[in-house]
Amino acid sequence: MAQISAWDHPDPLALDTAPLPQYGSGSLADLLPTLAAGLGVPGMTATIGELVPADRVCVFLVDGLGWEQLRAHPDEAPFLNSLLGSSRGGTGRPLTAGYPATTATSLASVGTGLPPGAHGLPGYTVRNPDTGELMNQLRWQPWAPPQPWQPYPTVFQLAHDAGVHAAQVSSPAFASTPLTKVALSGGTFHGRLTGEDRMDLAAEQLAAGDRSLVYTYYAELDGAGHRYGVASDTWRGQLMNVDRLAQRLAEQLPPRSALYVTADHGMVDVPFDEQHRIDFDEDWELGAGVALLGGEGRARHVYAVPGAGADVLTVWREVLGEQFWVASRDEAIEAGWFGPRVDERVYARLGDVIAAAHDDVLITASQREPKESALVGNHGSMTPAEQLVPLLEVRS
After folding, report:
1. Cα–Cα distance between 326 and 130 in angstroms, integer?
2. What are phi and psi of 85, to 5 degrees?
3. Taking phi first (over 0 means left), then psi (-120 to 50 degrees means alpha), and beta for anything else, what does residue 24 get?
4. Residues whose CB is less than 8 angstroms from the CB of residue 281 and which lie 6 or more positions away in sequence, other chains included
5. Local structure of residue 27 (DSSP, 8 states)
6. Prior bond to 42 cis, omega within 30?
7. How far apart are CA 232 and CA 45, in angstroms?
8. CB 224 within 8 A of CB 238
9. What is the DSSP letter of 325?
10. Contact of 254 with 396, CB cutoff 8 Å
């Protein structure tokens, strides 16, 4: 892992200047194994060494609550900002999301305790090698059998099997989705519509066992950022609500509990002009030799027609200049972007060319992806604004 200071001066965009997530010591994939190890779950290892075990542990994951955005809004989130010094076991340091910094990938990393190269959800959309189609891993469209796609047990399931009371408290809409099945299943799922009800029930579920592992989730902050941007009044209003919810849960913790507030990624607002938004559907150079365009605007998987991979890599590097880290599949794997290993079943899901944004830019696709191309707030890459997430702690 490059030190955080290395993010300040990434020129030139050689691959070794890309700031790697802290896989194995301080990434989202390390969180639940560390907590489960403290609960005595067999096979789990405490790789985030700063965390002190607790008998009852709750993870409150706020979609889109980046470390940098939280620190920039002390007035909107006074409670959470008061906890900044508690982050990562009192070190005051953030976690890293993992690459790409996007919801499906991060939730799978959290729930399985594995980096993307192992759990196999390495992007917003990736090629399904069995069908040759792009698969949206957040919405699970087109549908693919969940178990072969992600065969590893979740940490929740392992904890449940070890006698720990495991529970997820989230929106009822997520109760039976394939993403929940492969990333967050195990124990019991409790659907509640409002954030307040989720906080109250999460506290009840914590108290329901002598050893408990509880997960709860809030999505609306991310939605506000995508639609209106993290500079918007709407986003700030949602952050104020998140702050109230976190305090509500913290004040209800049963004895011997630890609450961890974290996130799946941060976010970057990208201006609406040709300098910051490069439209793949209007750029013949970027489109030459490309069979499928996957990923998302700041973290692209590019699938070449057979035999064109080297040419596509050359063109993408030339056209994108210093705005993106551009790697071949094997270069990205060797550099460790997706973790220390990439399973064989995952290899062909990765693009022949992989492009990760450095500047506040996007590779949009106005015709193929009209909705995604219209988003104000975006994420996916390895910049601090996207990659760094809090791990705020409250103990009872």
Report:
1. 26
2. -70, -20
3. left
4. 287, 364, 365, 366, 367, 368
5. B
6. no
7. 41
8. yes
9. E
10. yes
**396 residues of the chain, pLDDT tens digit each:** 344 444 443 344 788 889 999 999 999 999 999 999 999 999 999 999 999 999 999 999 999 999 999 999 999 999 999 999 999 999 999 999 999 999 999 999 999 999 999 999 999 999 999 999 999 999 999 999 999 999 999 999 999 999 999 999 999 999 999 999 999 999 999 999 999 999 999 999 999 999 999 999 999 999 999 999 999 999 999 999 999 999 999 999 999 999 999 999 999 999 999 999 999 999 999 999 999 999 999 999 999 999 999 999 999 999 997 899 999 999 999 999 999 999 999 999 999 999 999 999 999 999 999 999 999 999 999 999 999 999 999 999
Name the residue with tokens 């919405």.
139
Tokens of 271: 């201006």
Helix segments in 143-283, DSSP class H:
146-149, 155-161, 178-183, 195-207, 220-228, 233-250
Residue type, 283: D
Q: Distance between CA 290 and CA 16 in Å, rounded? A: 26
Asked if residue 327 lies in contact with residue 350, where contact means CB atoms within 8 angstroms, the answer is no
Q: Any idea which residue has 């997430």 for tokens?
A: 389
Distant-in-sequence, close-in-space partners of 75: CB < 8 Å, separation ≥ 6: none
What b/e string do you get for 197-230 counting C-beta neighbours within 10 Å, with b at 16 or more? ebbbbbbebbbebebbbbbbbbbbbbebbbebbb
258's tokens? 């630890």
Q: What is the pLDDT of residue 322?
A: 85
Other CB atoms within a 10 A radius of the CB of residue 50 amount to 16
Distance separating alpha carbons of residues 365 and 281, to the nearest angstrom: 5
